[in-house]
Amino acid sequence: MAPPPLLPVRGHWTLSAMLVAVCAAGLWLFSRGFLLTRMALPDRSLAHVLPYEGAAGPDQTAGAWRPAVFRRAVVLVIDAMRADFATWSDELNATFGAGEARRGRLMPYHNRLPAVAALSAARPEQTMLCRFRADPPTTTLQRLKGLTTGQLPTFIDAGSNFAGSAIDEDNWLRALAGRNVAFMGDDTWISLFPAELADTQAMEDNATLWEARGGGGWTRSRPFPSLNVWDLDTVDDGVLSRLPLFLLPPESAERDMGAAQAAELRERRQRWRQLVRQPQTWAHADFGGGGGGGGGGGMASGRVGPEQLHRDWDVIIAHGLGVDHCGHRFGPDHPAISHKLAQMNQAIELIVDAIDRDDAPTALFVFGDHGMDPKGDHGGDSPREVDAGLWIYANRRWRSRDGDARAARVLERVQAALQDAPLDEDLKAAWWHNTHLSDDYRAAGSAGLLDAPALRSIPQVDLVSTLALALGLPIPFNNLGAVVPEVFAAGGAGSGAEWGLLQALRLNAAQTQRYIDTYVGSSRAHGFPDDALRAWQAAYDRAEASYRALPKGASARGQGHARDAEEQAAAEYYVFLRLVLGSLRQMWAQFDSVLIAAGLGTLALATAALALLYACTRTRTLEDVAGRCRSLALGGALAGAIVFRAVAAVLVSSAVSHMTPLEATVAGLAVGAAAALAAGLAAEAGCSLGARRLCECARHVAASPGAQLNAAAAAMAAVHALAFLSNSFTFSEDSVVLYAVQTLVLAAAATAARGLAPSSAEHRRAAAWRALACSAALLVLNRASSYSTVCREEQLPNCTPTFYGLPSASISTRPLAAANALMVWLVPHVVGRALRRSRSDRAMVARLWVAVGMRISMGMAAAYWVLDSIDGQLVASGLPAAGAAGDWSDLRTALARMSAGIALGGGLAAWYASPFCLDVAITTTAAPPGPIRGAQPAKQRQQQQQQQCAVILGYGNAYGAGYLVFATVVFCVLYLVQQPMGAMMLSALFVKIIVGAELFDSLRDALGGAGAASLAPAQMAMLAMLSFVDYFSTGHQFTLVSIQWNAAFVGVREMQLVVCGAIVALNTLGSFVLAAACVPLAVVWNEPLGSPALRLAPASYVARVTGAAAVYVAYHALIATSTAAWAAWFRRHLMVWKVFAPRVMFSIPVLLASAAVVLFAAVGLATVHMLRVGLTVGDVQARTAQKVQSAQKTTAATTQAR
To answer: Where does this protein have compositionally biased stretches of type Gly residues (predicted)?
Structure first.
């Protein structure tokens, strides 16, 4: 017996690798040109060098630009502390008589920080409460960069929130070198400041290392994992257990105290202990192995003992995450938020009590790095996400009525000067009405029940210059913020010196001007527009002129006209700082048009190449196509690289582009390779553009129902691609893609109806009825999927979120989690019915995996989410994590791991070993008639007229059923990482994919002949559209805040960056991964085991599968190209960073993941493995049948001869 024909796949892998590489290069080039990062200057501000010349030197005693306001500071970051969380309102607690509505509904987060309100009312000269306006994106890493450097973030930085790189810009932590610093909390700080916050405890006991370091101050760092949003307590407990080691005297100090003082100290220490919710916190070595958290011996060293830790610290940085995690898990409207805010309130009370006993001037800065939206998420720029709170307290009076009055007059002058300036409102207005407290509140001049309380409003970057000068540090070199006037307005900078606020603002403005000059001088391509530079310089010159015109001499400064002149000069400096900050906010980043054009050109050529590859696969094999295209692509890449390197040198020198040599090389390689690849594929496909060719195509479409359906698919793809030319359509992409896919389904139904003509054969009419039934099922399922939604901010109030079961819920309700359990029966049942049509359900793989293993895997996943819902309510009720909730957590983890293990270790392994759903049944059939000689008994004659034969069950759909089993394994893994409603919608998508495969197979049967021209384009377009429909129905939008971060810990106990990142990616891209994995079903569905098309021409069959995959990837490439093109077109649009840029960012992983899954995993591995096994089995079966048939003919001939 000759060996079975080989399955050539080298051409598939070659073309797939080239196309994916070209797509990736195009996306990278566009990102480099569109999502630029600003240039980070390496310059540093030095304490002994003032930012301007011709002025008095720095304060020599302190070695600072000006005398410090505070000697020490505690920086307490309450992650996601929104402005209304810190604002007290008596009206929110007020109820009124019968028949009168309650004003200001009290929410769980209202009035939960009474310590802030009480201290602000009792000690107004020691406190200040502000709205703390964040610059988007409002993710923690980007906010920490702004809060330490004073710089604006760039949008592309949001992608690094999982793993930030060290900050190489000047910052106020770097200026703390030589001082004693303690840090505890969110480990993001350590990733950003690995050198500045490096713990010195071990080094202190090693004299050699300490001397090599140069001595200086000590540092204590205790970072805790930050991304486990289900853990509400670990980070907070780590912070609150260690703060008293610095704020309270050590236990050894009790020996020198009286009995009353020692008892009071023990009572204070006990109050701190009561804040810690997890008993296992005290088992850490910092507390001497559970000694109670008072001695701090575990954090001491031979050089720095417990007493030095308490007495000598300069700055404490504490970053708690409980409020933020509570928001992510439950949302701000959940009662759990009140427990976390109450815990933070007690911590503030204890910190204030501790610093009040300190002899040194000590300040407490309490602020949120961002806010949270009504669902508890953040990352965007909605008002509730950017409006955090800031509260400043000190143990000394640092404000005065006169200073506040003068600062208010300065701010009023600034508001008047900036009234007509094209700046954001928060930069022009120094006060803000806190309308977040309640919908019943109103802003000034608007309709409402109550007047919203007014707060001072400052940008977050203002903290940097304020904190630096208040502590006697130089302002970081790249800072763009302005000092908070009230902090410096109370007095002068020294005896007989000028007004403190004026001096601080002059230092501030001079540093900003120095930064601008350095930035412009660093590179022509990175400079600012000339008109902006002139406006900034004019504003700075006016401020300097006002300053130089001030009366000289200490006696003159106290006069009324001199005070007015000082305030005017201070206002001029402040106006300059706001103009610079506001202008740079609007510029945000400099676009590189050359790189944008190169990226768009590469993507467009890659899309064309994918479409041409499909055309080639209809007549050519991949081996033939790949051989020629490989040489062309290599030559085009080399030629493009040479040309681009030469052109780039000219463009950079003329300041048209800022591309680096690497970017120029990649651009040349990508554009050259894409152009050569597209040209080569066009030649192989025999494509030509001309009037005659277009007429031929039009006649073909008019005559072929299949071609008409493909044309309808192309039209709907164009509708989807053109939706991004408007921000309104981009908001409503879920509705646009639903319209497109429903229209395409109706077009398929209209095509099927042609097969019902009376002249059609009976089998064609039956196939047409099946197609109509499948179309109706798809219409119903798509409409049902559209009812699962999460809403973009722009869609409110016309959109009602339903994804979590209730509009106000932020976690899945228990009824919804229980309803998800129905999928455990439904999906395997649908798969079983699909297999039963070809009797493939009788096979051992189907009976063990689909009927048993798949149900067990899905059942465990459903149980996981039921327990998660129960666990969420236990945590929300205030139970400690070590109680019942902790036990549920362990059980959930075990269920998730067993679910994934059964799917991968059971289902995938079984399919790989035996990919076909085949079984053999023995049946009795009538024997063919033959001569009867002589008289024979009746029983003997009956036996001769019957014969037994073996029937292969599942033969008719061997390849389709086998691949469907593989798809069920992929589905089970994705089902696990989806939340309950998402799991149900993903189940609906899987059912739709199966129905869609049957729809197009029935269409081919109903049309037949020339009318059944390849329907792969229409089928792939529908499949791609379904992936978008169910992306939205699984609880996602193309916004950062819709990412379901809590899915990162499915089956994981602790933060593991790669694993958790992969789980979030599967959760987000689940619909695209599932659809891409099911692409081969379009070709192999209802393909019999002994298929002549495969057995006689395996290379052509592989080309068919690759062609279908190419069309699917082409659809996603078209959408990615369209989003990028329209984002580039609208790059100066008001909504570019809110709408268009996020859509581009999401299109990158969607395209690359879809291409990689379908070309490499689905076709290159799974389909090729199945086809290779099928060629062997099918060849043996065919040859056996031929031998049996030959033997039967020989026997019949011999019998007849006798």
So the answer is: 287-300
Take residue 1187 and report the two structure tokens written for it. Answer: 């031998």
Q: Give the pLDDT score at 380.
A: 74
Quick one: which of 320, 303, 581, 317 has its CA closest to 471? Answer: 317
Gap between the Cα atoms of 439 and 804, Å rounded: 23
How does DSSP classify residue 498? -
777's tokens: 């099922």
Measured from the Cβ of residue 260, the count of other Cβ atoms closer than 10 Å reads 8
Asked whether the beta carbons of 220 and 198 are under 8 A apart, the reply is: no
Q: Rounded to whole angstroms, how far apart are CA atoms 533 and 888? A: 61
Please name which of 573, 452, 451, 561 lies closest in space to residue 511, comparing C-alpha atoms: 573
Question: Quick one: DSSP state of residue 73?
Answer: E
Q: pTM of the predicted model, to two decimals?
A: 0.78
- Going along 934-1081, which residue ranges are E strands? 946-953
Spatial distance between the Cα atoms of 963 and 950, rounded to a whole number of angstroms: 24
Using 50, 70 and 90 to split pLDDT, how confident is the model at 538?
A: very high
Structure confidence by residue, pLDDT tens digits, 268-321: 999 999 999 988 889 888 887 544 444 556 888 888 999 999 999 999 999 999
Nearest Cα neighbor of 175 from 378, 464, 511 is 464
The single residue listed with the structure tokens 């007095």 is: 491
Q: Which residues, 6+ apart, have CB-to-CB distance to 49 below 8 Å?
A: none
Give the DSSP H/E element, type plus range, for residue 457.
Answer: strand 454-459
Tell me which H or E stretch contains 745: helix 733-753
DSSP state of 59: B
- Report the C-alpha gap between 393 and 89 in whole angstroms: 20
Q: What is the pLDDT of residues 1056-1083, one digit of tens each?
A: 878 888 999 999 999 999 999 999 999 9
Question: For residues 220 and 245, what is the distance between their CA atoms, to the nearest angstrom?
Answer: 11
> pLDDT tens-digit profile of 123-170?
999 999 999 999 877 888 888 999 999 998 765 543 344 444 678 889
Contacts for 665-669 with beta carbons within 8 Å, 24 or more apart?
A: 665/641, 666/25, 666/28, 666/29, 667/29, 667/594, 667/595, 667/598, 667/602, 667/640, 668/637, 668/640, 668/641, 668/642, 668/643, 668/644, 669/25, 669/637, 669/638, 669/640, 669/641
pLDDT higher at 228 or 990 = 990
Give me 1105's structure tokens: 């599968």
Q: Is 100 a residue whose pLDDT tops 90?
A: no
> Exposed, middle or buried: residue 667 (CB in 10 Å: 0-12, 13-18, 19+)?
buried
Helices (H) and strands (E) in the chain, counts: 46, 13
Give the amino acid at 1048.
A
- pLDDT band of residue 870 (cuts 50, 70, 90) is confident
| Burial grade of 60 (CB within 10 A; 0-12, 13-18, 19 or more) | exposed
Pick from 1085, 1089, 1080: nearest CA to 1176: 1089
Q: What would the mean pLDDT of 597-604 be, rounded to a whole number?
A: 96
